[in-house]
Amino acid sequence: MAEYLPRLLDDDLSELLPEVGAIALEGAKGVGKTATASRLARTVIALDDPVVAERVTGRAATLTEAEPPVLLDEWQRAPMVWDRVRRLVDADGPRGRFLLTGSAVPRGAAVHSGAGRIVRLRLRPLSLAERGLVAPTVSLGALLDGDLTEVGGLSPLSADDYAAEILRSGLPGLRGRSWKATRRELDGYLANVVEREFGEQGQMVRRPDTLLRWLRAYAAATGGTASYTAILDAATPGETAKLSKSTTLAYRDTLSSLWLLDEVGPWLPLGNAMHALGKTPKHFLADPALAARLLDLTERDLVTGGGPTPLGPQQGQLLGRLFEALVAQSLHVYAQVNEARLSHLRDAKGRHEVDFVVARGQTVIGVEVKASERAGSDAVDHLHWLERTFADVKVVKVVVTAGRDAYTRDDGVHIVPAALLGP
User: Fold this and answer.
1) Fewest CB atoms less than 10 Å from the CB: which of 15, 211, 368, 394?
2) CB within 8 Å of 218: residues ≥ 6 apart
């Protein structure tokens, strides 16, 4: 068995499980849900085995007779176990009895939400901190707490290193593979989504090549706010018999149910007088390596600016967009363990935008992302605009770069290399 890569969510799981009836660990295939949950389980029931699934669904006592904590792996293969777990939790049995892992939301399955009974946590691909590239020196949690007024540290990574990390993937099983093996694994992953998993979700795909083109167009929209109409047009240029809007929205919903989309929604603070804020999410796949593979990008393409033109109103090259996706993936993980929310900010006219907003209580961290060593005056200007415009909250200003030095400017803006930012 491959060595387990510790996850930032490990501590949350260990702390929560003894206090709740059940935890559902959700996420795309290959992110490491089974390995993470198995470390806490005494009994593992693999429901992707049809024989095991038939036994569990046909004999209710199986769940109560097993030594807890019981891991129900790929529970969506036998959706009725969700309600059985919920009822057992309702019966005020011992806490910490069940872990459920799932890589899809069962389409049309009549399962109770589990609210108040089953705690749901999302496991994502490895963040930069979890990849063990360099020890982070800047804590997102400390920034949220107001405990960090000056930052420092030195990163050995360059922009070329980040380009390589984009392509290497954050899926634990792909770490350490050769470039060729990684590309083949990603190709197989995507083929499985198109040829098998859509069908298992009840979504008939009559034109797999069109779905794959749509996925490529979505990948080209990474980090942007392109409309789904624009994505469809890019996927089917010159075709008169285009897919209907309902079909493309079904694609989006199915990908979401498979946890393959990880879009960042807009920040819409309550009670703010500024009503003209954009409400479109930023598009991201669960792993930027999937987007890079869909676009057939090499490390040289990323570094030299090769590849297709990105979709959406935001400017920039694909390296910038995919570097932003790499940062977003990590920010999702860091925000989650700090009980914060990740979003983005853009006014309706596109004059002002902030790449990411991490919010918890009355503290907001504005994050601009630059795939270069320098922060750039435009990034700093956007952060100062955020502070001026939303004076009712405490604003912390951060520019995440592909540079080497972490430091705090005289105007209070923290410059932080991506690898040095951690939870």
Assistant:
1) 15
2) 231, 283, 285, 294
Bridging pattern class, strands 414-417 and 353-360 = unpaired
Q: What is the pTM of this model?
A: 0.94
